[in-house]
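Cross-posted from the bioinformatics board.
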Amino acid sequence: MVWNEKECMTKEERENWQLERLQETVKLAYENVEFYKKRFDEIGLKPEDIKTLKDIEKIPFTTKSDLREAYPLGLLAVPREEIVEIHASSGTTGKPTVTGYTQNDLDVWGECIARGLTMAGAKKDYIIQNAYGYGLFTGGFGIHHGGNKLGAITIPISAGNTRRQLDTMVDFQSDILTCTPSYAMYLGESREKAGISLDEINLKIGIHGAEMWTDEMRKRIEKSLGIKTYNIYGLTEVMGPGVAQECSEQNGMHIQDDHFYPEIINPETGETLDHGESGELVLTSLTKTGMPILRFRTKDLTSLIGEKCVCGRTTVRMTRITGRSDDMLKIKGVMVFPSQIEKALLKIEGISPNYLIHVTRPDILDEVEVKVEASKELFSDEIKQMEKVEKQIQASIRSETGLRVDVTLCEPESLPRSEGKAVRVIDEREL
Amino acid sequence: MAIQISVFIENKEGRIKKAIDTLGKAGVNIRALSVGDTAKYGILRLIVSDNEAATKALEEESFIVKQSEVIVVAVPDKPNGLNSTLAILDDADINLEYIYAFVSSQPDEAIVAMKVEDIEAATEVFKANNAKILTDEDIEKI
């Protein structure tokens, strides 16, 4: 089922719609936001110069640090009284970036999430167990707005309190679980540990995002909770979750491109790339009024699929994010993404996907230690066997990344396990 | 043959004590113990009075626990006593993975636990050479 016919527009209809909205958005930003006016004036660009969609390439990029400098509400395009809700990114790497939403923006958000829920097969009478954190983080409220729009029953359980999550699954027979993939993984493990059988719960659908996960992790979540999972994408700076989501084909995430215009660029040169080419995703909002955003560099590395999907939707799709241009590690000159390490680990039977990559430079050479939680399957009473397991892990990481790393097995549940975003990398090099 | 409990011990302060403490609280008595250690972690191997209670208590504390079979043999408590027992394995070309000793209540007898490559074959040759193999019941009486 398709929530909105806008998801199935022809190429021409879509491009006309996008161009019209792009022109409006550029005008709104230029006339109301000092930051954009300055940027445009510096290069002599006028809103009227945007005559085709291709002209978007003339607009300067907006970066996360631009948003930080505008902290807290420097980029509003409307008088403050029109803002009805505020969210912010976690601010783990500096000052938080804040987004203000008008009622129109919340409607757009709810619309995008309702589309995603429908793509995953949700119906009006479904119960959504929303285990994304409620707060400044966009996950909890974003899903909540969408659940309301769809008319489903949303349980705002928020993240954490695992026992209560399991009880809720059993007692309310929740149909959909929405949370980060690492928390879904943890809930699956906890269900098994608590001796709750799959027959006792009624989950069918999992919608997971806000952090990177691999297909191997997907398989484990699907198995441990008896669900089909859907990858969801979004970011606070642009809106929050719901910018894109997978349909039941699980073949790329449909970007709601009547609301967000996607481009892929070469992260080094800024040059726009074609569909199918890998690069950094750049997003421009087309319908937001509170804080329109032009050409925001997401740092997320992906590629676009332009062809119509088997599901019937024509919205452009983005492939699974392979990394962030800023969480890419350069170790001994080799580019490594945490997702590669995860993939290598999950190829080994009995391994838990809880790992930590610890990079140091004791002298002049980089050293990498990958800490992995041991499990009953990996453990042996013989050191010889344990060494074999470590070597196997090492070999798997080597074939995936080309790097020789040191592997350390540690006790279960000893690595930082987040109920929000997982910490996967500690880089102690002074670069 | 007897059951041995092995516990994965991360190289972190207080982990062995935590494991021993857990067993004590569960009312489990330790008959024999050894630690196989590497630079990064250790493997605590135990022969205990109640395997199931020990496993359950340790797992509840999130330890990784494994039960495996070892051969427990009584050896004469005199010079060359252990050597003559090991010679039996040696003659049969059976590899010894590790060995550790028990406290024995018998003045003339020492007890050792052995992990061998082929436990069936080792049991056979010990029996053929009249070595005294202890069962779980025998160990309970120690």
